[in-house]
Design brief:
It is built from 7 helices and 18 strands. The protein is an alpha+beta fold and 336 residues long. The chain is globular.
Length: 336
């Protein structure tokens, strides 16, 4: 199934009206703020549906996210945008198993949706290291089991935009209702969000390999790890992670970054000692570190993600830098 929906984010309309073109279909959609099995009661949303079209089925296939084709910049002219509206004058919702994965766990997506902010004051979201933004892009919300990711990024050629968090939550709600709360389900993408239609939000499956430490070394409300993640590189340029003195290395290992208080630090290294090099990109490393934060640190534990790199020989961890590593304990890290 491939679904396209155009809407504007500046008006209010009951979601009962939004789905009134198909009463039987609407009745099957969950009220995400109440439970999975109740009928659609109408929404609190700030999005007005101008029209909805169900396009001919596309052949979906399994996607392991992030994949080799992953990019934090979402191109509105790609085949995932069925109407190809380069100006993004109206937002467009697309469901596609081919582009955004399928077999998503509904409960995981609803959990992370409910955790999203309903704040109504607009905030700025922009590409990291390009200016002062309230939140750097890409930005990821992740379920606590790591299986459902809600990604926010910007359109090609745009550094950032301004949007109210409640509108992002509403966009996620529409993807869950239309793309995921059906069988078979698929991931989805909404483009054209923000004052200048420059933001994109997608929901995709994710399968991180994360182990959390047994001790509670972080306070659940400690934002030190989020500060580290927001300052990490997150582009998809290929890098060679390896010994600092080895020709061809672009990222010397072990690599680390921490806050001034050293309450939380990110470390990337190889699982074995020796002259080992691995290729990957910062986006995949950032996604793994982000997973450790959502799955471990936000419940008070340090954690490590393994199986990173083309040959799965890299690990990334988040921990209190005064405590032992969950990776190679003898690795010494000069943090940046």
């Amino acid at each position: 199934m491939f679904v396209a929906l155009r809407f504007s984010q500046y008006f209010s309309l009951s979601l009962v009206t939004l789905f009134s073109i198909s009463g039987s279909y609407a009745a099957k959609l969950p009220n995400l703020d109440v439970g999975f099995n109740s009928k659609l009661q109408g929404g609190h949303g700030s999005l007005l549906a101008k029209n909805i079209r169900i396009l001919p089925p596309s052949e979906p296939h399994n996607v392991s996210w992030p994949s080799n084709s992953s990019s934090p910049i979402l191109d509105p002219s790609s085949e995932a945008n069925p109407l190809n509206v380069p100006a993004l004058s109206n937002a467009l919702l697309s469901c596609s198993g081919k582009d955004y994965g399928r077999n998503l766990r509904l409960a995981s997506c609803v959990q992370v949706y409910r955790a999203m902010s309903s704040y109504t004051v607009p905030r700025s979201f922009g590409e990291r290291f390009t200016g002062e933004w309230d939140a750097p892009l890409p930005f990821r919300y992740l379920s606590h089991d790591g299986l459902c990711a809600i990604d926010l990024s910007h359109a090609a050629g745009v550094n950032g935009d301004i949007v109210a968090p409640v509108d992002l939550k509403e966009a996620a709600s529409l993807i869950i209702r239309i793309c995921i709360a059906v069988s078979p389900n698929q991931g989805g993408l909404v483009t054209g969000l923000g004052v200048n239609n420059g933001l994109s939000l997608r929901i995709v499956p994710y399968r991180p390999t994360v182990t959390c430490g047994p001790d509670r070394s972080f306070l659940p409300d400690d934002l030190a790890c989020r500060d580290v993640i927001d300052k990490m590189p997150a582009n998809n340029k290929r890098q060679v992670f390896g010994p600092k003195d080895q020709p061809g290395t672009t990222v010397g290992l072990p690599w680390g970054y921490t806050t001034g208080r050293r309450k939380c630090g990110a470390v990337v290294d190889t699982i074995e000692e020796g002259k080992i090099s691995e290729e990957s990109d910062w986006y995949k490393i950032w996604a793994a570190v982000n997973a450790v934060d959502f799955m471990c640190c936000q419940v008070g534990r340090r954690g490590v993600a393994t199986g990173l790199g083309d040959h799965k020989r890299l690990y990334a961890e988040l921990r209190d830098m005064t405590q032992p590593s969950l990776g190679r304990s003898n690795a010494t890290v000069a943090t940046e």
